[in-house]
């Protein structure tokens, strides 16, 4: 099995583990933003299924449709993450900027998806959400540093969620920015797969952080 395929299957296993962890804490009292996180996990499972199916069949059947499905799922994942930040930063001075960035970036990303599929232009619509999510994370960290701490961070569910999202976006933004500059020639396919593997590994770490955030629900004073 090639490295990139192994990472996809490993990542799918970790996402499923996060799904079952979420189910285990379904009856546990928790903040409303976990509804967005649970939806994010389900979308992640659908993305993995789409990726596995495409690796097996897409080079022969409906490659363009597979990419469209992937990009739409990523758009909805971005929306869930953004609503999570709206929830945890609802009392922040940055909340208006977050809402403007949220809806503006949704429009831009939707436009890019349409352009890519009408013109076959090599633009990664994921570049925009990764950049915007990095900005959201910076807002959270600025608030964290400017306000008197009221929770133990290592036991804070929100902190682990943000750190996982931050780590993934830090990797995702340069990777999605780099891909358009890599030749589409068959001899470069392996390079493209390895670059995507780096991003997929960052996603695995993010889902592990999500699992950790659920475990933190055992300490309700540190939500």
Task: Kindly describe this structure.
With 223 residues, the protein is an all-alpha fold. The chain has a single domain, classed as Up-down Bundle (Rhopdopsin 7-helix transmembrane proteins), CATH 1.20.1070. Helix content is 75%, strand content 0%. It is built from seven helices and no strands.
Layout of secondary structure:
Blueprint: H1 3-24, H2 34-58, H3 63-88, H4 95-119, H5 127-146, H6 157-178, H7 189-215
Descriptors for this entry?
223 residues, Rhopdopsin 7-helix transmembrane proteins
Strand content: under 5%
Distance between the termini: 41 Å
Structural class of the helices, strands and pairings? Answer: mainly alpha
The count of DSSP E runs of length 2 or more, i.e. the number of strands, is 0
Largest sheet: none
Q: How many separate domains make up the residues?
A: 1
CATH fold group: Rhopdopsin 7-helix transmembrane proteins
Assembly type of the chains comes to: single chain
Question: According to CATH, what is the class?
Answer: Mainly Alpha
The 3D shape can be described as: globular
**Run of helices and strands:** HHHHHHH
Helix count equals 7
How helix-rich are the residues, as a percent range? Answer: over 70%
Unreliable segments (pLDDT under 50, ≥5 consecutive)? none
Mean model confidence by pLDDT: 85
From the coordinates shown, what is the CATH architecture?
Up-down Bundle
What's the alpha carbon Rg, rounded to whole Å? Answer: 18 Å
């Amino acid at each position: 099995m090639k490295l990139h395929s192994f990472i996809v299957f490993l990542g799918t296993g970790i996402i499923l583990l996060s799904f079952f962890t979420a189910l285990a804490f379904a009856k546990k009292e928790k903040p409303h933003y976990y509804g967005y996180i649970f939806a994010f996990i389900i979308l992640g499972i659908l993305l993995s299924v789409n990726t596995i199916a495409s690796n097996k069949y897409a080079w022969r059947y409906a490659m363009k449709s597979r990419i469209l499905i992937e990009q739409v799922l990523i758009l909805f994942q971005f929306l869930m993450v953004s609503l999570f930040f709206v929830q945890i930063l609802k009392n922040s001075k940055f909340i208006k900027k977050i809402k403007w960035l949220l809806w503006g970036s949704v429009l831009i990303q939707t436009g890019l998806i349409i352009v890519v599929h009408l013109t076959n232009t090599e633009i990664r619509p994921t570049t925009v959400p990764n950049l915007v999510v990095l900005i959201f994370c910076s807002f959270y960290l600025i608030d964290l540093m400017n306000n008197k701490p009221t929770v133990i961070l290592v036991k804070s569910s929100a902190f682990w969620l943000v750190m996982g999202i931050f780590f993934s976006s830090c990797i995702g933004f340069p990777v999605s920015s780099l891909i358009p500059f890599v030749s589409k020639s068959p001899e470069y396919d392996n390079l493209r797969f390895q670059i995507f593997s780096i991003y997929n590994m960052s996603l695995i770490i993010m889902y592990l952080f999500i699992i950790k955030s659920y475990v933190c629900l055992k300490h309700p004073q540190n939500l």
